[in-house]
Amino acid sequence: MKLRRQTPPDPQQLTLQLDFFSPDAQPKAAGDQPAASPSPQPIFQPAPPELQLAPGTPSSQAPSRAKRHIRVGEHVLEYRLLRSKRRSIGFLIDEDGLRITAPRWVPLAEIESAIHEKRRWIFAKLSERRERSARRLQPHMQWRDGATLPYFGEQITLRILAAQAAGVAYSDALRELIVSLPPDASEQQLKDRVQGWLQQEARRVFAERLPVYAARLGVTYRAFALSSATTQWGSCTADGRIRLNWRLIHFALPMIDYVIAHELSHLREMNHSPRFWATVQSIFPEFEAARRVLRASGPDTLPEF
């Protein structure tokens, strides 16, 4: 089964991005008040070594004149400061580390105070970025007998059988996906068979879980379809059409349920306001944990088809 050509986005839909939300739009749980910058993550993590400078390192040794340094606890944090017309201080972690965008009228002392306030979030995101970069260096999946791939949050093993008739069968007891192919089959044919089976499983699971959360919310969706998007986990239109990324089948059921609950909640609130997040929390209380797992699992962590 081939990936379908992606259609242009519907301007009337809300989407759930693979990277989820920008640091300036962190989700709020019930009772939270809107803030100009993201809420700190609950666990403090040291900044990655390659993103630190030793104490006393002169700024002239920084790779760019735009780089600044500030001592945060036991670490010296490097960041880039950009001035703009925005009304609040914004934080972004990208390939070059921490970037801060602040209004031209905000003094440096206030910016550095904001850094200290958001230090846990900053160091956690720097650590996530480092781990993601390390995963990119790992070898790509080899499509052969004995290879493994993620399915429902666990690894299953591919078993390839030479046969005249092509087919796919799954053994839950052995955690093996048995793919029958002609002896002269190509690697692409193997990937197509496996992808087709995964998409079939995704459709089955989505069809089972959508009614569960729709009933909890008291909403009715019009239809759902599989998505092959590279930047979205799901989307929802105002008229109740839901699209879910078939690659969610790689993840454990709580992550799948979170995305389903997220999209169905848009049938109550077509936005990402505090009221929306309160709606999500009302039917999926552990949404924060599931969201963190998905945010740390980009396309580079999944098998290539």
From TrEMBL:
Residues in YgjP-like metallopeptidase domain copies: 88-296
InterPro entries with a match to the protein in the record: UTP_pyrophosphatase-like, YgjP-like_metallopeptidase
Coiled coil regions in record: none
Keyword set, alphabetical order: Hydrolase
Gene3D superfamilies per record: Metalloproteases ('zincins'), catalytic domain
GO molecular function: hydrolase activity
Annotated Pfam families: YgjP-like (PF01863)
Region (Disordered): 20-68
Bias (Pro residues) ranges: 37-49
Entry protein name: Metal-dependent hydrolase
